[in-house]
Write a structure and sequence with these properties.
This protein folds into three domains: 185 residues, no CATH class; 151 residues, no CATH class; 88 residues, no CATH class. The protein contains 18 helices and twelve strands.
């Protein structure tokens, strides 16, 4: 039998030829070094979607050479492996020089779908490791792999993950764990902190070289602007605003929004102590290391704007005028966030056409959730089942999918009455509306307890749960009755789960 047409166009491992556009910058921007690799590596998980994205035949996962390459043991043709330098603010405090302390950029692949850089996370110490071992553990690698792909399934801009390769190499964290390497994929891994690094050193030439590289490679539309660097900042501000709207609309919490974890392309970058909102609390802190609550759910848009101001400070030597730098943030971030957030929330609520007072209703919806703490994902998914009109006598039964999430059902009833009144202002056939709402409200998100189950099984060399979760999270808006248990509330044993910067 002949292979499907799209598979005939995909490459074998030996046919991949890398280049590294970032390596075209002067050597001050990075250190060339090979990954340290892993002894006796084995495959923990891999994404068919990402393989096809970069032009690789997923059948190559079964080749021994796949683990050797993506553990960092062998470099593919054309690879010019390096670790990049950057700086940044961590928890609002200037941390100075940072850099890829456990990541090696192998290089990039170009195809009809774009330019894709591949980075190995956990492949050994670099000059920027700051005394650390340069390793990632199986636990954190599974979390990053699954969440990268879950966010892509949700339609949220993100870095992707090709694979996890593990080994029995011991790594010391709070306890002894085993090592793993995640192959991360993105058009670029340049961060806000990449610009802060050169600005803090008063190195205008390098600052300009980096900005010109980003504009030429990823944002050529900025070149013809009156001030290309202000245009770049405006572009980043808009994309970051839209990204925050996406995060807030699905209840995602990053947990460590340092400037070195902010993508210049507006992608979700660096999955560590992340979480998805369960019992709603706008002040929820998903990162156990965030002792002062800087990165609570409600603070994420404010922190993103603060980070953009730090990027504006860094780009000021190129932009020239402080007013122009500030305007690039102020005129683009807030408006982009508000417009996209309202659009996403109106879709979640089933509003066919937006109205001026929708912002008020959206605020009231979050107020209801804050007071009564229903599960965030279940609340909106249950809402997709409800009709726009209901017989009073049958209301309790009809509305049970949502009402059962509340102890105070009268509060739920009052909100539903207002919701139905709003639906009536822009009538929409129930079947069409409910289908649209299902497409806007995921049934499945990567809850921490789901990741924990996969981690515990993987630590016993059972990787089947990683595979099942990946299959489910690839289609989070579909019913998928075979995965129904993944939509459940956390079990009692998961109540004490904590994630931190070591996660």
């Amino acid at each position: 039998m002949n292979a499907p047409e799209h598979h005939r166009r995909l490459a074998r491992l030996e046919q991949l030829v890398f280049d590294n556009s970032f390596a075209g910058l002067p050597e001050a921007f990075y250190t060339r070094l090979a990954p340290l690799g892993l002894p006796a590596p084995y495959l923990v998980g891999a994404s068919d979607e990402v393989a096809e994205l970069i032009g690789l035949d997923p059948g190559e996962f079964q080749q021994p050479e796949f683990c050797e390459i993506f553990a960092g043991n062998n470099l593919p043709p054309g690879s010019d492996a390096l670790a990049a330098v950057y700086s940044g603010h961590q928890f609002g405090i200037w941390a100075g020089q940072l850099g890829d302390g456990r990541a090696h950029l192998l290089g990039g692949l170009r195809n009809a779908r774009g330019h894709w850089e591949i980075q190995l996370k956990g492949a050994g110490r670099t000059p920027y490791s700051r005394g650390a071992d340069g390793r990632a553990v199986l636990r954190s690698s599974i979390r990053e792999f699954l969440c990268s792909e879950a966010m892509a399934g949700l339609g949220i801009p993100t870095t992707r993950a090709l694979s996890i390769v593990g080994a029995d190499l011991p790594v010391c964290r709070e306890e002894i764990e085993t090592a793993a390497v995640v192959a991360r994929v993105a058009p670029s891994f340049v961060r806000f902190g990449s610009f802060e690094h050169w600005s803090s050193r008063d190195r205008k030439a390098e600052l300009r070289q980096l900005a010109d590289y980003v504009i030429a490679t990823f944002r050529p539309e900025c070149r013809d602007a009156a001030n290309p660097y202000a245009a770049l900042l405006a572009n980043v501000s808009r994309r970051t605003g839209e990204l925050m709207a996406h995060w807030m609309a699905v209840g995602f919490m990053h947990g460590v929004m340092n400037t070195d974890n902010m993508s210049i392309l507006g992608l979700t970058l660096d999955y560590g102590p992340f979480g998805f909102m369960e019992a709603f609390d706008a002040g929820h802190i998903c990162n156990h290391s965030d002792t002062h609550g800087r990165y609570t759910f409600r603070n994420q848009p404010h922190v993103a704007q603060w980070n953009l101001y730090r990027l504006a400070d860094a780009l000021l030597p190129l932009i020239g005028k402080p007013t122009a730098a500030q305007a690039a943030v102020d005129d683009h971030f807030g408006s982009a966030f508000e417009a996209r957030f309202e659009q996403l929330m109106c879709a979640k609520l089933g509003f066919r056409v937006a109205r001026e007072d929708d912002e008020t209703f959206i605020g009231e919806t979050f107020g209801l959730q804050q007071q009564h703490r229903p599960d965030f994902t279940q609340f909106f998914r249950a809402l997709t089942q409800l009709p726009a009109a209901v017989d009073r006598e049958k209301q309790a039964k009809t509305d049970a999918p949502l009402r059962d999430l509340f102890v105070d059902r009268t509060a739920c009833d009052a909100w539903l009455a207002n919701w139905r009144a709003r639906l009536a202002q822009t009538p929409w056939d129930d079947d069409a509306r409910q289908a649209a709402m299902r497409a806007a409200n995921p049934k499945y998100v990567l809850r921490n307890w789901l990741a924990e189950v996969a981690i515990r099984k993987a630590q016993d060399k059972d990787f089947s749960e990683v595979e099942r979760l990946l299959a489910c999270l690839r289609h989070p808006f579909d019913e998928q009755p075979e995965f129904e248990h993944y939509a459940a509330l956390p079990p009692d044993w998961a109540n004490g789960l904590e994630v931190s910067c070591s996660s």
